[in-house]
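Z., the sequence and structure:
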Amino acid sequence: MNALVSGKRERRNQLGFTLAEFIVAIAVSALIVVGSLVLLRYMIAVAADNRDKTMATLQVQYVGFWISEDVVQAQTIELGDSNGFPLIITWTEWDGDVNEVTYTVDTEKRELERGHKVNGESYGTSVVSEYLDPGATECSRRNLDDVLVDALVLEVTATVDRSEASSTYEIHPRAFVVWE
């Protein structure tokens, strides 16, 4: 009987895991790893969607900012035939410099470009916004009923992958504007 008791004591004092304990530990670890990978994949997909939505929103805001900055200074606004583009805005500075800014939509590249001239000399063209939806981006003139001042209405839509952002801006020039 002493042999049986001493054998049990030896087994209880053994260091290490039994095969059953090892298999359970592997199974639990596998569940944790698989769950973590699924969560990581979900987080990456959500981050990409948020990035696309943020980029589309920023592109719409860039258009609103730049055109607003120029329209508030305008003395002449000329709307083009195709969705209001090219949009040509001119004003004369206090020192006599004549500024002309031309906004055009490049339908192939889906970009809004801004060309700037001072006294007829070109200061180059820059891309104001990318990812525009050319069919949903347009300028028009709105005559306000009770007031003699007109406003420029700018509708902008940008699409980045599956995310879309759009906004409508009503921009009021500071001074009397000649509309052409």
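The chain has two helices and nine strands. The CA atoms of residues 62 and 129 lie 6 Å apart.

Let me know what you think.
H.
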